[in-house]
């Protein structure tokens, strides 16, 4: 946790936060904070700054944090929509965190022929469960703004009815093996990146995505785990946000 | 497992392999192979091709595989040495696999001020434990050649005595936050990439690495997990090996 994220509901009075549970444990055990210390905090969807530790007890951690203390804006999102075939639940959690950490602005979890049907029943897809992973990703990156996450459990209606709207004003890329064209690096401007499931999108799906304007590009002959493919491709495509 | 990797010791006679344990389970349960099927196999350090399933029984899986069947060369390694501050054991396993999957030719696990001393006592650093993760990475990527992994538990002697030899003929890059120079993309030719521990290399260490010829470069203000930083940076630096 590189940033202690506060929710509006944590404020028991204006300027006064009371924490229990995971975040309070972290303040006690990792920061080993005592009254009088200052902690780096951010408000979900808002600014970042420092809070003053007012109390550390077994029951709660109390912080003093005025709105004026949260004057640092969060880092800008990367202008990229990631269209990802729904990964297996175990991997989903890590990918949600990672995608958030990397500053992706929107994630669409898409069905594909090679996505196991049971994945759509995972409890990890419940909105609260997804949000929990996103928050962990924000805490890691020092960001406060949740990415948008949407589910597209039906491939064809999504590609026909939703994808054209997402693609408006964006360059679309589909990371797909065997196309022979290397995925580009440092692409400027709004992007949409599609990454298939283990085993890849089937030819029908590739065809539909191409018709929607996505350019297929290749990451090489090595078969990557989905998680690795996401990080490698975003690392290539997105210019580092340096000196902000 | 995208490639069933065979060890010389698996051959009970020339051209005949007997498997037990994890790999036999995989053939039975994931491939659901029966006698007469063909499986994609590779020989550790050697070629790749197809084997004929001769027997599937609870006791063993027997494959017929002649040397001539293993005529496909493994993919070329990426000409990069990764110099990585020793990560925490839990992360080490995944990173060993990932680095192997990405085709890194050599990995040096380095001490740093911010590496917890206890990490060096991890059973996951034993040669057999490391090799196990590397093999999983090769199976994922469809490669047969183990990367070289060395340990550098003392920073200063490594940087003074070993690093100059590794740097000969290579461009050296150090991914380090706050330098203000974005890490380059698609670097051609032999590379050495250094990535610090959680919290980064300390200024003394950065100074020594720079003296050794490494250029510091920046991935942006977001704080990435080591695992993510490794994938993102390698994804940027290494041109995809397309159309091999």
From TrEMBL, chains A, B:
Compartments, record wording: Cytoplasm
Coiled-coil residue spans: none
EC number(s) per entry: 2.1.1.193
Gene Ontology molecular function: any one: rRNA (uridine-N3-)-methyltransferase activity
Catalytic activity: uridine(1498) in 16S rRNA + S-adenosyl-L-methionine = N(3)-methyluridine(1498) in 16S rRNA + S-adenosyl-L-homocysteine + H(+)
GO CC annotation terms, alphabetical: cytoplasm
Gene Ontology BP term (one): rRNA base methylation
Domain named Ribosomal RNA small subunit methyltransferase E methyltransferase: residues: 76-236
Alphabetical UniProt keywords: Cytoplasm, Methyltransferase, rRNA processing, S-adenosyl-L-methionine, Transferase
InterPro entries, alphabetized: Alpha/beta_knot_MTases, RsmE, RsmE_MTase_dom, tRNA_m1G_MTases_N
One Pfam family, short name: Methyltrans_RNA
Enzyme class: transferase
Function: Specifically methylates the N3 position of the uracil ring of uridine 1498 (m3U1498) in 16S rRNA. Acts on the fully assembled 30S ribosomal subunit.
PANTHER family: 16S RRNA (URACIL(1498)-N(3))-METHYLTRANSFERASE (PTHR30027:SF3), RIBOSOMAL RNA SMALL SUBUNIT METHYLTRANSFERASE E (PTHR30027)
Family classification: Belongs to the RNA methyltransferase RsmE family.
Protein name: Ribosomal RNA small subunit methyltransferase E
Organism in which the protein naturally occurs: Amnimonas aquatica
